[in-house]
Amino acid sequence: MPSKVFSAAIVGLDAELIEVEVDTNYGLRCFNIVGLPDKAIQESKERVAAAIKSSKFQGPAQQPIKVLVNLAPADIKKQGSLYDLPIALGYLLDTDQTKFEPSDKIFVGELSLDGKLRPVRGVLSFVLLAKEKGKKEIILPVANAPEAALIKGLKVIGVESLNQAIQYLENKKEIFPYKISNLEIKPKNNEDIDLKWIKGQSNAKRALEIAAAGAHNLLMTGPPGTGKTLLAKALASILPCLSFEESLEVTKIYSVSGFLPKSSALMQIRPFRSPHHSSSEVSLIGGGTPPRPGEITLAHRGVLFLDEFPEFHRDVLESLRQPLEEGRITILRAKHCLSLPARFTLVAASNPCPCGHHGDPERNCTCSSSQIQKYRRKLSGPLMDRIDIFVDVPSLNYDKLTTSKQETASNIIREKVEKAREIQKQRFASSAESEYRILTNAEMNIPLIKKYCQIDGKSQSFLRNYVDSGKLSARGYHRILKVSRTIADLFESENIQFDHISEALMYRIKD
User: Which domains does the chain have, with CATH numbers?
Assistant: First the structure.
């Protein structure tokens, strides 16, 4: 009977259980792997053979034996080097060189030629799968143990080599399950750039505060060198810490993508992604062969900053419309259907024209009217309608730039943002209408807007004028209400006031 051990395969961001079946028979020496393996798995037979020999066992090359490895189910594409350890253990089981019970365990790990184990990607997904399938243990490289230990209720055994794994499985060596300390999962803030470093620009800073409090999309427009990029980067310093549940969501994405920092098993700082304007559609929204998460998924629960917004290819920008509305991206290909989370805050920066000085009272614009129109046409109406806050970032004179006046520090603004976020968390925790977990005002659907964004008669008449005149679309109307709700939360007001509506409209309509 062939031996069987269990491993896993990454499909999108989730994992599927894989049975690694190994059958050995005496005959003409050969080593075959079937079950839709990629090139890295095909090459694993050389790594496995060398690692078994280095670990003082009888390898396939040392005896006349045929080895057949089947990765089942055979219709799932398998990728990566994580099957080295289960293949080696399956071979040793089938050739009676070791004895252990593999049915309640999952094995992942890449083998080096001397039998040592190297870390692999996607471990958090594997642990969640093991727990879902009722497995009791996961045995993996010791470098991956801190990440795996984030999920409770499963024995996480980190091993350094194939020999150590065998000794543990044969009860010859005791290895205690890895436990993660509270210190390792303590949330952190990104404080690389403080808002107090930026002089003036009070309107832009207020817009950043509102955007951070409600996770609203923001577009900053102004001449070159006025601080748009610095303001966008400073937004990260006023965002609240990731909750543990959010950290797990983000960690899972970064683990599968291979971007998880080596210094930490958990993503503790909100993502801030800033792709170049020459980025392709696939790099931004995800896809490729095999399908991989794009920048919008890597920015999940964080910020996606698009500098030089109109310089991005038009089809790239238009591909943002669905994820901005739904918080997910669905990628359909001939052989794949992938749904990835993309609940990010879009922050964009743009010049008013190609030269950047249109409307600047101090410098003359050198662009023709046709150039300006062509530049602005890159940003379509439907895309702009999905942005909540528009703010101008004007040039500063010398006196404002060199003033000794102290600006408000990021930590002070962050305290207000955290209070507003806590109000939203409590509000939506008791909401029965939400079909999925809502954390911020920007995520409200129509029933929730009707419930939590009630306004008085004066505010209704005020908004009616803009809707009836065509200056405000139906989507724009609902986004005004969401932003107004966030402004009210910043003031810790239970009801939306006329002043809150007026301020939200000021960031939306430019007469």
Answer: 3-180 (3.30.230.10), 195-352+380-414 (3.40.50.300), 444-506 (no CATH)
